[in-house]
Design a protein that fits this description.
By secondary structure, this protein is of the alpha+beta class. The protein has three helices and twelve strands. The strands form four sheets. Strands 3, 5, 7, 9 and 10 form a five-stranded antiparallel sheet that branches. The longest helix has 12 residues. The chain is globular and about 50 Å long.
Length: 166
């Protein structure tokens, strides 16, 4: 199935009747323990500030941070990050909007006892939050489907100050 068909199939979910969208799932915070992505997970991180003014948006960028990403040495792994607006702590069957992806390609080293460092993925979500009309939401739904063996250490949303001087 090519990318265009998948995109349109996901978009058709939004067009379904309200009665079909009644099936929702309760979502919780990520917690303090690392989680292995054996199946897609949905987490509900707190946003640092809601309904920010244009000046505040110019001073600091809202960034989704996925930290402590561990992949076994020499293994291929990938996961996409989707962001959706929660409805009273629950989410419907809509997968949300794609914020970005993490990809680890297998490669060989001559040294076999190399300790694989943890990775970190940072995704700017300022325009995405506006697109899904979630500027006033205190929390966002983060959905992580996966391919391969991946462990995640944490998911959070932070504000990064913009430094105009380079």
């Amino acid at each position: 199935m090519n990318i265009r068909h998948r995109y349109f199939n996901l978009r058709d979910v939004k067009k379904k009747k309200a009665s079909e969208l009644a099936s929702t799932t309760t979502i919780f915070d990520f917690g303090s323990q690392p989680r292995t992505l054996t199946e897609p997970i949905q987490v509900l991180p707190q946003r640092p500030k809601t309904s920010r003014t244009k000046k505040e948006k110019d001073e600091a960028i809202e960034v989704l941070v996925i930290e402590g990403i561990k992949v076994p040495h020499g293994a291929a792994a990938r996961f996409d990050v989707y962001v959706a607006k929660p409805m009273e702590g629950q989410v419907g069957p809509d997968v949300g909007e794609l914020a970005g992806s993490f990809v680890n390609l297998p490669h060989a080293h001559h040294k076999f006892h190399i300790k694989k460092p943890k990775s970190r993925l940072e995704l700017g979500i300022i325009s995405l939050v506006e697109d899904i009309e979630a500027a006033s939401s205190e929390k966002l739904v983060i959905i992580l489907p996966r391919m391969g063996e991946v462990t995640i250490g944490g998911v959070q949303i932070v504000l990064l100050k913009v430094d105009d001087e380079y």
